[in-house]
Amino acid sequence: MRHLRSGTLGFGTALGVAVAAAGTLAMAPAAAAVTPGTATLSFNCGFFGSGTATLTATQNGTAATISLSTSAITSPIDVGANTVSSTLTLTKNGSGTTTFTGSHNPAIPAGKAVSTGPLSGTVAAGDKLAATSLKVVVFGVTATCNATTPQSPGPFVF
Known about the structure:
About 15% of the residues lie in helices and about 50% in strands. By secondary structure, it is mainly beta. Strands 1, 2, 3, 4, 5, 6, 7, 8 and 9 form a 9-stranded antiparallel beta sheet that branches. It has one helix at about 10-25, and strands spanning about 40-45, 50-60, 65-75, 85-90, 95-100, 115-120, 130-140, 140-145, 155. The chain has 1 helix and 9 strands; from the N terminus they run H-E-E-E-E-E-E-E-E-E. The protein has one domain (about 40-155): Immunoglobulin-like, CATH 2.60.40. The longest helix is centred in the first third of the chain and has 20 residues, at about 10-25. It comes from Streptomyces caniferus. This is Lipoprotein. Keywords: Signal.
């Protein structure tokens, strides 16, 4: 009867599992990344004012989010967290449009710039999105903002 030395089978099994795991990780797709991650543009919000906006985009597969802060709209009163409803409209691949929506925001003190997001949307690999307008609803009052400059450094590419 043949005897195995102590630990030989355990080491071989561990080595096989390690090789299989390394192969699996090597074949796994890399996490999707949107470029650029941050962009700026200017908005005119009519009666509410005008100013610059900073947009920050993230992606997880076909799900994407954009957070936005703009000096174009300042809050005349304190606004509680998650009370701002926003819709960001973007051109999609140079022709059509898509929207990112949400009701997420930090608390906004009186006199401070409005921040909203993350706003949620759906993307496909290769989509190029550039912001064109923003609708913000606070306490039933709607501010509609139109882009007055192109998004810089360029559209988000997912």
